[in-house]
Each structure stands twice: as C-alpha cells, then as structure tokens.
Amino acid sequence: MNAYDLLVGPFAEFEFMRRALVGVFALAIGAGPVGAFLMLRRMSLTGDAMAHAILPGAALGFLVSGLNLYAMTLGGIAAGLLVAVGAGVIARATELKEDASLAAFYLISLALGVMIVSLKGSNVDLLHVLFGTVLGLDDPTLILVAGIATLTLVTLAIIWRSLVLECVDPAFLASVSRAGGPSHIAFLALVVLNLVGGFHALGTLLSVGLMMLPAATARFWVRDLTPLVALATCIAFASGVVGLLVSYHFGAPSGPAIILVAGTAYAVSVLVGPAGGIVSGRVRRRHLEA
Amino acid sequence: MLSRRSLLAAALVLGVTPALAQSDAAAPAAKLPVVASFSILGDFVKNVGGDRIAMTTIVGPNSDTHVYQPTPNDAKKLAAAKVVFVNGLGFEGWMDRLVKASGTKATVVVATTGIKPRERTADEPQDDDEKPKGKKEAHAHGAIDPHAWQSVANAKVYVANIRDGLIAADPAGKDVYTANAAAYLAKLDALQADVLKAVAAIPDDHRRIITSHDAFGYFGDAYGLKLLAPEGVSTESEASAKDVGRIIRQIKAQKVPAVFLENVSDPRLMDRIAKESSAKVGGTLYSDALSDDKGPATTYIDMVQSNLRALSAALSS
C-alpha cells in the first residue's frame, strides 16, 4: 500500500470521508483556541462539566421534535448557557466557589437529561446523542459546525485582549476596564457553542476531548499564547485526520479513534515535549548539576 | 357475593404465593399476569394467550431494546407476573439482572429455545472484495445474532415455546392455548408463503438488504437475501469508516438499488450512504420493535408484511 492509498485515497474515493474531514476541520478551528483559553484559565474540567450540562437541553429538543438538528442544538445551547450563567451567578452571590456550584449544576443537569430521555420510553438514538456520528454529517450539520467555528473566530478576535488580560491579571483588568465580565460571559458562550457543534459529530462526551487534549498537548511544546492557540488548532485537526484514517484502515469506530489519536499525541508530549515534558526536565537538571 | 370474594382473594394471593395462585388462576375471570420483554414478543404472547392472560411489555413500540434502561415500574411488573417471556440470545442483556432484582417468582421462558443461534462469523461472506484477515477480526464480528424472529419459521418456534410456557403455568387453559397457537401458526404459515413468493419476485442480483444495524440475518438466511450493515448486530456498536466505505463500494459495484432505514436507528448515516452510492432510500424496515398504533406494523404479521412491501417495492425495479 503506497502513501497515496494510505493518506489521500480514502478521502478521494468517499464523500462521507471528505465531509468528516471538513467537519473535524471546522471543529478544530473552534475548539482549539477555546480549549487553549480554558486550559490557561484553569477551567479544563469546566469543559467536561458543560458537556454533561448540554444533555438535558438536547434531550428536550429530541423529545419535542425528534431527531431534529435545530431543536437539539437550540436546546443544548440553552441548557449549557443556563448552567454556565447560573453557576457563575451563584458563585458571585453566595459563599460557594464557582467549581462547586458548577459541579452541582452540571450533575443536576445530567440527571435531568437522563431522566428526560428515559421518560419518553424510547431509547432510540440516545447513544447517538452521547456518541455522535462523524461519518453521517449532512449539509445542515456541516453548516452549523462551520458557522459555529466562524462565530468563534470573530468573537475571539473581539474579546482577545480582555480575555488574555483576564487570564494573566484579572484584578488589573477590573481596575482599568469593565470588559472583563462581558468577555467572560462571551467566552463561556463560545465554550457551550463549540461543545454543541461537537456533539453532532463526536457526541457530548467526546467533543470535550477535541477541545482539551490538543490544548494540553500544545502546552508541552510552546509557552507563548499565540503559538499555543495555533498549535492546539493544528493538533486538533491532525488528530481528526489521523483518527479518520485509523478508523478507515483498521475498522475502528471513528469518534473514539479521533480522541485516542489526540490522547496519544498528549502522552508523547508529556514524555518528550520541550516545554516542561518529563524528559526535557530531567535533561536540563542534569545539565545544571554538571 | 361469593364469587366476588373469591376473586378478591385470588387477586391478593396472586404474586405472593404462586402455588396457591395457580389453583385460583383456574377461576374464569382471573387472568394470568405475564410480561414480555419487547413489543414483537408481546404480540406473539397476546396471540397465544388471548383472553386468558393480562399481558404487559417492558420495551414499547418503536423503542430500542438493546440499550433499554429499566425503571422500578418494570421491576414491579415482573414481580407481579407469573410468566416472563424473554427473547434470549443476549438481546435483552439487562433482563437477567432485572429478573433477579425484582425478586419475582415467575417462570422465565426463553422464547428462542430450540432455535439454532446464528453467529456472524468471519467465514460468512460479508464482503466480496476483501477476505477477512484473521482470528482477531472473526472475534470482533462473531457476536450471536439475537434477531431470530425475523424468520417466520423461527417465529413458529417462538409461538410453540410460548404455548408450552403458558400451559405449564396455567394447565387449566391448555385447550385454549393450544387452539390459539394452532390458529396463529396457521396464519404464520400463510405469512411464510407470502414472504417466499415476494422474495422470489425480486431479481437474483438485487437480493441484498442494507440496513443500519445487523438485524435481518435470520431473514436473509431463511429467504436467500444477503445483508450488510455498517453497525454490528447490536445498535450499541458504532460504525467505523472502514465499514461504511466498504458498504458504499459494494453498493456501487453490485448496483444495489436501495438501502433501508430502521425504526430504531439514526437515519443520518444511512442517508449519507444512500446519497454517496446513488442508491435510493427504500423506506423504513421494522427490525427490533413494532410501530405504535399509527404506524403500519402494529402486529408481527403486519410488520413482516410491511417490511416485505418495502423490500419488494425498492428491489424489484
């Protein structure tokens, strides 16, 4: 088998592979930067919590109008925003810290989601909500995912400065500008949007993987923000491509394959990444001792 | 007055002491409480039991039994039942635990007893352009196929098992059950003839069923149709790009005219396969559940006939 058959052939022959490729590209563009910022703000687990929070909204959409893309998307966005804003408000209004209130909210939300899906009596496609179908992306889904990616880039361009400042020194930002609050909310909205886009392709649980794993991987290679964002996006896209090829050549289910490729990249980076990886740390220490 | 009191007593005693209940169930008005795990099996049970039983199903119409989540209500139904009918062959994986947890004293009748389970093995010609490579792959696809009811011949075995199960639990109703079963078996024989006739009308090279999960293995084996599905025998497994690619290639190479949707699966993947291979979507096949009252497949016989109509219409052209 030559390189063409290995790398290009599957995409050249099958339209569903090209669609999946476009899908993971759009997802990577949105999820890469959002994941990088989540990580820098020490909110890596927030993404996971939000992914669970989306479920009842999507389930409610499913309950109302069946497997309808727009109803499930709207429901997911609404539920995600409600949990994000609700947790934020409670954290500011009470003594409870934000992580605890977020945990409370997402657990309630998750249980609600499972209950709504089960109450209907029909379990049809519950697993497709949880696991998605990157191979079955139709036109509306692709347009939705691409639209979310575009919106993410535009919004990030607008709130970039305040977002960066808030990562570095929130107190300073609050003293010079009132953009901190709105940009934080806008950022949370982006997290929700990207997760909702991701769950059509990868499912609610795995879409977080394409967000956090590339960001964590990229962190082992570069320290500056702009290269970090760019590298995270590239790693997300590369994981998508390699994952699809693995799924194609070895017959592995596509969603997990994509995330596991990103996971492998992460494991390798933990070992040999120049910016804080295990090996590079050891090497430098020995160098200093000598 | 007396009869009302004995009726009340029967209702109270039922479920508490099966031995006592057995004699009480002989009273004409006390119906034998039975539970069937899913809608198709429920239809068989209803046909055999007739008026003598009070039947409930756990997984309703249009629902996917593979991934069902039981509720306490289901356990309550089981606890009250005298006989529980299950498909077996790993179809309702959650059932064993539910039966144990409910503490029911009901007899569990496995309706597929005596049916030769069909395994999706590696030597089965799944694809023409590529031979399976080794044992590993054989293992991955070698799951037992639980969808035995798709062959009408097997349905007759189901009915016989159900009849025997009901007679064992309610000997007084033996004549009724035997007569009901005989009448229903005759209907199934007629159905079998219909299926054979309809399949014979489909051109040889069009005899291929492509659905989203592998539910029509017994149907294919019994009537000489080949089948392909991107998901495995259970809806739980996820499709891989390899399987989807292989199926598209095969549809193109063999000019299969149509693919089918199922009432229990996500239609998007099959839509994609249809568009890409320029086959048409030949309608919905009912695989693992009956339709609700509005649908075309409220009973097993209607279901097979509805599937048959969809297949003939799409494949005969």
Describe the structure.
The complex is a heterodimer of chains A (290) and B (317). Helix content of chain A is 84%, strand content 0%. Chain A has 290 residues and is mainly alpha-helical. In chain A, α2 (15-40) crosses α10 (204-219) and α7 packs across α8. Chain B has 317 residues and is of the alpha/beta class. Chain B has twelve helices and ten strands. Chain B has helices at residues 2-13, 18-24, 39-49, 72-80, 95-102, 135-141, 152-169, 174-200, 217-223, 241-254, 267-277, 300-315; strands spanning 32-38, 53-59, 83-86, 107-110, 118-119, 144-145, 208-210, 226-228, 258-262, 280-285. In chain B, β7 (208-210), α9 and β8 form a beta-alpha-beta unit. In chain B, α1 packs antiparallel against α2 (18-24), α3 (39-49) packs across α7 and α4 (72-80) crosses α5 (95-102). The radius of gyration of chain B is 21 Å and the shape is globular. Mean pLDDT of chain B is 76; it is low at 12-27 and 121-141. Chains A and B meet through α2, α6, α11 and α12 of A and α10 and α11 of B.
**Could you name the ranges of chain A where pLDDT drops below 50 across 5 or more consecutive residues?**
none
Structural class of chain B: alpha/beta
Helix content of chain B: 40-55%
Overall, the morphology of chain B is globular
The description of the largest β-sheet of chain A is: none
Instruction: Estimate the strand proportion of chain B.
Output: 5-15%
Low-confidence stretches of chain B: 12-27, 121-141
Largest interface: A-B, 38 and 35 residues
Query: CATH superfamily of the largest domain in chain B, please?
Result: Nitrogenase molybdenum iron protein domain
Chart the SSEs and their pairings.
The complex is a heterodimer of chains A (290) and B (317).
Chain A: H1 3-13, H2 15-40, H3 44-65, H4 69-93, H5 98-119, H6 126-131, H7 139-168, H8 170-176, H9 180-201, H10 204-219, H11 225-250, H12 254-272, H13 278-289
Helix pairs in contact in A: 1-2, 2-7, 2-9, 2-10, 2-11, 3-4, 3-5, 3-9, 3-10, 4-5, 4-9, 7-8, 7-9, 9-10, 10-11, 10-12, 11-12
Chain B: H1 2-13, H2 18-24, E1 32-38, H3 39-49, E2 53-59, H4 72-80, E3 83-86, H5 95-102, E4 107-110, E5 118-119, H6 135-141, E6 144-145, H7 152-169, H8 174-200, E7 208-210, H9 217-223, E8 226-228, H10 241-254, E9 258-262, H11 267-277, E10 280-285, H12 300-315
Parallel strand pairs in B: 1-2, 1-3, 3-4, 7-8, 9-10
Antiparallel strand pairs in B: 5-6
Helix pairs in contact in B: 1-2, 3-7, 4-5, 7-8, 8-12, 10-11
